[in-house]
Write a structure and sequence with these properties.
Distance between the termini of chain A: 12 Å
Helix content of chain A: 55-70%
Strand content of chain A: under 5%
Shape of chain A: globular
Largest sheet of chain A: none
Number of strands of chain A: 0
Order of helices and strands of chain A: HHHHHH
Oligomer: homodimer
Number of helices of chain A: 6
Structural class of chain A: mainly alpha
Radius of gyration of chain A: 14 Å
Chain lengths: 106, 106
DNA sequence: TGCTTATATGTCAGTTTTGACATATTATTA
DNA sequence: TAATAATATGTCAAAACTGACATATAAGCA
């Protein structure tokens, strides 16, 4: 994994292991993170396309503005379940979700 | 939603609301459940294609046989995160995951 | 510039998900 | 048939995730 990418992930709060095994992020771990970041991005785009504020989306899915912010920031404390439920609440179809997931993140 | 399908879901342990609003499962809720069941199925197929037992898979992902069984049974206590991580551990690519998700469940 | 709205970040108690365990049920094979 | 392997089901303490809140920072506009 490239140094730049690792930095990006670490800045978002992902713990990629101790300093000694920073370079050992497995392909599966990387794919999993990629996948969540793709969902994050997709969520942000969908919300903005609807001219909706984070607070409005929070109301829609009975969550809070801060959690929406964390979702869109790719915070590791957010589950895929919540990301997907949010996308669906914004009108995404299963195929839309699939497309978001298949998209490579960089 | 069809009666037969609802029964199927309820038999797996999904709580689809009280008797009065059994028919009001929203499209989003339905899509979310469908999506998880598709991942379940995909996981089971992948594992079996590799001639791997649930115990072996459990070891591989540092989980337990009982949790694998729950994943494959579509138990509502299992997160999408765990399902996806497991698929990736079995060698699925992001595209494979996307395909599983896009697949309609019945 | 100040004012307002939107987004980001940190914390935390309540809830959900977790691996592990015991044990039941169902194949599979001798 | 018995014995063994595989899968299913129920429970629980620990770990992870959650909405909510406070508050910081940023963006837009008068």
């Amino acid at each position: 994994m490239k140094q730049a990418k690792r930095k990006k992930l670490e800045s978002r709060g992902w713990k990629i292991g101790s300093t000694t095994d920073l370079l050992k992020l497995t392909a599966e771990e990387e794919a999993y993170i990629d996948l969540k970041l793709s969902l994050s991005e997709s969520l942000k785009n969908r919300r903005q396309d609807k001219n909706m504020s984070q607070s409005e989306l929070a109301r829609l899915i009975q969550s809070s503005q801060s959690r929406i912010a964390k979702m869109e920031a790719g915070d590791p404390s957010v589950s895929m379940d919540l990301l997907v439920k949010s996308l669906l609440a914004l009108g995404a179809s299963k195929k839309d979700v699939a497309k978001a997931i298949a998209a490579s993140s960089d």
